[in-house]
Design brief:
Layout lengths: L2 H19 L9 H8 L14 H11 L4 H25 L4 H12 L3 H4 L5 H22 L3 H16 L4 H12 L10 H23 L3 H12 L6 H11 L4 H13 L8 H15 L12 H14 L9 H18 L6 H6 L1 H6 L15 H4 L4 H13 L7 E5 L2 H10 L7 E2 L16 E6 L7 H5 L3 E9 L11 E8 L3 H18 L1
Parallel strand pairs: 1-2, 1-3
Antiparallel strand pairs: 3-5, 4-5
Helix pairs in contact: 1-4, 1-5, 2-21, 4-5, 4-7, 4-15, 5-15, 5-16, 7-8, 8-10, 9-14, 13-14, 13-15, 20-21
Length: about 500
């Protein structure tokens, strides 16, 4: 084993270790993770929330035992592979050992540490962006058309993971047209690769068509409830923070692809960066959507700096570029990860507020960062729902109906009683089992000071009661109430079917 391989293995081991060390056991899984894990039990070519790839990994996790270790393993794996692709890109660009170490450090000690703690499509999305650019560099370097096919397959899997990769395509097309690399458009392999990619994503496109394109409804809802609160100035500020320790390396990479003679053939990478970022800004995208854009420029920058810092007084700057990611990691460690108790974070809320971390998707400041608040209260909810379910006269005829996908997914994940909770929210809309004739209802409702659930629903049942509430004051679900209704006086199944059809109709009409 040579020195480079030994160092690379060391970085990968450290990457995996950090992904587990940076999580405090006080926190549960995050709201979205429960939904993605539940998709393992409902495999399909598409979902209302995401394309199908995440469900494939969820199924593997389920086969491995569905433990937290494996849930956290896969995003950590995707992060490690992203680091590996950057390492291979640096080698391709003929970078030396210093360039390899600098590039690996900038990727390792970045926002990817936070991103890779969550089991969401985002980690695989960043990997697909980075791998696609790597294959493009391979093609430009060698003009071997096999790399076009690899790029096409990577784009297809990226698309089947998260539609966000379409932004890569939108930014790359004008960049290619404006560069000398537009000669690729004259190659038949380019069109064969397009056809191959289209064939791979066709099942998902057919699913979207068959289900009246729910992505349109999802994007409209996203725009109305979340993207409307996106501030473009904050978007740009967060771009700087994502890879703050490697910011100078990224800037050096952008300079290098434009002016550094050995990188002249890669000039389209400057244009694609600008076009892609402008498209994100125009559509008021969430800041983290653009994270996949940056790792490849760390490779360019690391190689460029390793060359220009070799001679004279500039060689004394080499340690500084190595130290910067390490120095910036210290404050990042203290504020960016769920490694502090909620009590500690609330007591030091001012520093989190200054960083903009307390601003939620509703545009307001709260007591904890949204992702952290979304990792609390779920075990409590499942435990209390289990205890109420256990008291029901006929469990098989009891349905657990939740307000949102986080509640339903968390109950299903932690339940010791085999509960299969549902909701009219997100993908759970398609997962109701109406073959059972329900007589009892456990209703999980988000907190509302004017909640009329007991008053409105109790006339349809013989008994009605409040069974419990989420007491964790730091949880986003704080105050969520569990209502128990038994012995229905109406046909619950018919009522459920009506509401399901109404919700689906709303999606179609949108």
């Amino acid at each position: 084993m040579n020195k480079k391989t030994f160092i690379l293995i060391g970085f990968i081991i450290l990457k995996f270790a950090l992904q587990y060390i940076l999580l405090s056991p006080e926190y549960d899984l995050q709201r979205d993770e429960y939904l993605h894990l539940d998709q393992a039990h409902h495999l399909a070519w598409g979902y209302l929330s995401v394309p199908p790839v995440t469900s494939w990994f969820s199924y593997i996790i389920y086969l491995l035992g569905n433990s937290v270790f494996w849930i956290k393993f896969f995003p950590a794996l995707f992060g490690a592979l992203t680091l590996l692709v950057v390492w291979k890109t640096i080698e391709l660009l003929k970078g030396n050992l210093y360039a390899l170490i600098l590039g690996a450090l900038c990727v390792l000690l970045s926002c990817l540490l936070r991103l890779n703690t969550l089991y969401q499509p985002n980690s695989f999305d960043v990997l697909c962006w980075t791998a696609f650019y790597y294959f493009l560099i391979q093609y430009i370097t060698s003009e071997n058309t096999k790399w076009i096919y690899f790029a096409g397959i990577t784009f297809a899997f990226g698309f089947l993971n998260k539609y966000n990769i379409v932004f890569l395509f939108l930014g790359l097309v004008p960049a290619i047209l404006l560069s000398k690399q537009r000669k690729i458009l004259a190659k038949k392999e380019f069109y064969f690769a397009l056809i191959l990619g289209l064939m791979l994503i066709l099942p998902n496109l057919y699913w979207q068509y068959s289900n009246h394109f729910p992505i349109v409804h999802h994007m409209k809802e996203l725009a109305e409830t979340q993207l409307i609160n996106v501030d473009r100035a904050n978007f740009l500020k967060e771009q700087i923070l994502f890879f703050i320790g490697g910011l100078l390396v990224i800037l050096a990479g952008l300079y290098a692809v434009l002016f550094y003679q050995p990188f002249k053939k890669y000039q389209l990478f400057f244009a694609t960066f600008v076009f892609t970022l402008l498209i994100f800004i125009y559509f008021k995208a969430k800041a983290y959507y653009a994270i996949g854009l940056y790792p490849i420029y760390i490779a360019f920058g690391a190689v460029f700096l390793s060359e220009i810092l070799n001679n004279g007084w500039k060689r004394f700057l080499k340690p500084i570029f190595i130290l910067l990611p390490l120095l910036f990691f210290v404050p990042m460690y203290n504020i960016a990860f769920p490694n502090k108790s909620p009590e500690y974070m609330v007591a030091h809320s001012e520093k989190y507020k200054k960083m903009g971390m307390l601003r939620w998707e509703d545009g307001k400041d709260h007591h904890l960062p949204q992702d952290f608040a979304d990792m609390l209260g779920w075990k409590e909810l499942a435990r209390k729902t289990d205890s109420l379910y256990d008291l029901m006269p006929n469990k098989k005829e009891t349905i657990v109906l939740c307000d949102n996908y986080g509640q339903a997914g968390a109950i299903n994940f932690y339940s010791k009683k085999g509960i299969k909770a549902v909701s009219f929210n997100a993908d759970y809309l398609n997962w109701f089992d109406l073959t059972t004739h329900y007589k009892n209802l456990i209703r999980v409702k988000e907190f509302d000071e004017n909640n009329e659930e007991l008053k409105e629903t109790s006339p349809y049942f013989e008994t009605a009661a409040i069974g419990g509430q989420i007491k964790n004051q730091y949880a986003r679900e704080y105050g969520t109430t569990i209502f128990v209704f038994t012995n229905a006086k109406i046909n619950i199944n018919k009522r459920l079917e009506q509401e399901i059809n109404e919700e689906k109709s709303d999606i179609i009409n949108d």
